[in-house]
Amino acid sequence: MALRELKVCLLGDTGVGKSSIVWRFVEDSFDPNINPTIGASFMTKTVQYQNELHKFLIWDTAGQERFRALAPMYYRGSAAAIIVYDITKEETFSTLKNWVKELRQHGPPNIVVAIAGNKCDLIDVREVMERDAKDYADSIHAIFVETSAKNAININELFIEINSSKYLL
Ligand SMILES: Nc1nc2c(ncn2[C@@H]2O[C@H](COP(=O)(O)OP(=O)(O)OP(=O)(O)O)[C@@H](O)[C@H]2O)c(=O)[nH]1
């Protein structure tokens, strides 16, 4: 069976749940006491898609401001970027928009962008409306899903949507 490799990076504010999304996707587990990422971390997962094997090479970047300058090393050469915000923190959605701008200016020209509104299990304290985020995603031709790494909502779907994007090279 043919093997196709797909480099994906995760971007977004500290604490939005980037590592938790990767951990849920790769290991199907969740750690409420997960540590902030230092620099970046790398994981892989291979899935069967139609009659091919697709190997995701996943770079999970650190969201803390002091690591921001490292991000280009990870988004350069990526086929897709998952930009994550926390639906309970409006400011993380502003950070997401800055990442979109940076990718447009300095990222690979055909990079597939996926927006993940994480922590959708916490709807009682929601600050970002799903409709607003979806409209924004549509305006920049990005994939959009609300996810919960904690409750395993839409995590596999997020990667499946990336995998099946018609824009993927
Ligand atoms: N309720 C809830 N908590 C979550 C979810 N995903 C992550 N968390 C929690 O949010 C906190 C931060 O998660 P991380 O995965 O470390 O966030 P990160 O974006 O990788 O943070 P940095 O590594 O600093 O960039 C942790 O306490 C997680 O347990 C979720 O879907 N729901």
UniProtKB/TrEMBL annotation:
Its main location: membrane. It is a lipid-anchor. SUPFAM superfamilies: P-loop containing nucleoside triphosphate hydrolases. SMART domains: RAB, RAS, RHO. Keywords: GTP-binding, Lipoprotein, Nucleotide-binding, Prenylation. It comes from the Eukaryota. Coiled coil: none annotated. It is found in: Endomembrane system. PROSITE patterns: RAB, RAS. PANTHER family: PTHR47978. Belongs to the small GTPase superfamily. Rab family. This is Ras-related protein Rab-22A isoform X2. It comes from Erinaceus europaeus (Western European hedgehog).
